[in-house]
Design a protein that fits this description.
about 375 residues, alpha/beta, Rossmann fold, 2 domains, six-stranded parallel sheet, 15 helices, 15 strands, about 15% strand
Length: about 375
């Protein structure tokens, strides 16, 4: 099989992690090459190209990918698909779907479209998407949203959960340990460490995390809190609001803004409790990563979190936008080491059984082969 993956994303996030893991899993199988040749089309100003370094240089190409109606990109993609005898075009962002559809129409190849978000598709997609396009929804909530729009037939929508590298996160927990990050941040070795990971944005709930932290410190004065993530808003206004709230609550010496790091596995390895405080979340890849690391987890009951976490079995679910309830769950976990250990172990086992990259890659490859056999 010869597949080209397309993404116009400039920055690296959960969807891009999904694409890289899928490409690597399809391209390599242990020390053996699979019977799949992978190509990737990215925009020229992409800043995560190096993550695809395992592919031959000629297999990663530049396209302008300026917008959904970028005819130049569609033409260049068409030429590349013909030249390389590509059989499937797989697009990962909604703005790239029309470009993939136009190229597919010219070359008569199959189209696969991965959907990561709950936002509805727009009127353009209704008119340009091929009738035989296959959608991959990364969560049940995403699949339900696609069904509600009635753009494509239900049998064209396949559910494949995002996967993570379970071994990578599990090994980091064992090899890095809890003390390493504490030393780096000059924290006491016996402090309680609670963290949240993700883009600094209003819907990610960092403000509620800070409010919860204020209450947790009343019960655990030795507690320290990490906010790991980068502000993608204009002029950094989200982080400024966050910093103002931290100062207002007198938590400047308790809450550490670490920015973004590629080594999130080391963050999870150090935490006593991981928190997801999102107001909305279609899936929550970072929750699965925390599960893979064996973290005790508190998460707001978004659609994505409810699909991933079994409440009181693999984590604790709390009401959305309720800092008091969030703090109570954190306090309960900090008060009971045995409960933290039990939830963490069950979470790690569940991640291995349901959310591994290996499963995601195998299911995607199966869909490719089914499409080509039709």
């Amino acid at each position: 099989m010869r597949i080209i993956q397309i993404s116009s994303a400039k920055n690296f996030g959960g969807g891009e992690r999904h694409l890289v893991d899928l490409c690597e899993g399809l391209y390599c199988h242990g020390d053996q090459r699979r019977s799949v040749e992978i190509f990737v089309a990215l925009r020229a100003e992409n800043n995560w190209r190096k993550k695809l370094s395992f592919l031959p240089k000629g297999n990663v190409i530049n396209l302008p990918l300026k917008n959904s109606l970028d005819v130049t990109s569609a033409r260049k993609l068409t030429e590349f698909v013909k030249a390389k005898d590509i059989e499937i075009i797989h697009a990962h962002l909604a703005r790239d779907y029309p470009i993939a559809a136009l190229a597919a129409r010219k070359t008569r190849v199959k189209v696969v479209l991965t959907r990561h978000l709950l936002f509805p598709l727009n009127f353009l997609h209704r008119f340009v998407l091929p009738k035989d396009a296959t959608f991959i929804a990364v969560a049940e909530g995403v699949r339900h949203q696609l069904l509600q729009q009635k753009i494509i037939m239900p049998e064209q929508i396949k559910l494949i959960y995002n996967g993570v590298n379970i071994r990578h996160f599990a090994e980091a927990k064992k090899s890095v340990g809890k003390e390493n990050l504490r030393r780096q941040l000059n924290l006491k070795s016996d402090c309680r460490l609670i963290g949240i990971v993700g883009e600094i944005a209003s819907h990610k709930g960092q403000m509620d995390f800070v409010r919860a932290a204020a209450r947790v410190t009343e019960y655990f004065p030795e507690a320290e809190f990490l906010i790991v993530g980068q502000d993608g808003s204009a002029n950094g206004k989200q982080q400024k609001s966050l910093e103002n709230l931290i100062e207002e609550l007198g938590l400047q010496n308790k809450i550490h803004l670490l920015g973004w790091t590629e080594d999130v596995a080391s963050i999870f390895a150090a935490l006593d409790v991981f928190v997801s405080a999102s107001l909305t979340e279609p899936f929550g890849l970072v929750i699965v990563e925390a599960m893979a690391a064996g973290c005790a987890i508190v998460a707001t009951a978004t659609d994505g979190a409810k699909e991933i976490i079994n409440d009181e079995e693999t984590g604790k679910l709390v009401s959305i936008a309720n800092p008091i309830e969030l703090s109570e769950a954190i306090i309960e976990l900090l008060s009971d080491e045995n409960l933290r250990q039990t939830l963490g172990k069950k979470a790690q086992l569940n991640a291995k059984e349901k959310f591994s990259v290996k499963i995601m890659v195998a299911q995607t490859e199966k869909i490719y082969r089914e499409i080509l056999s039709q």
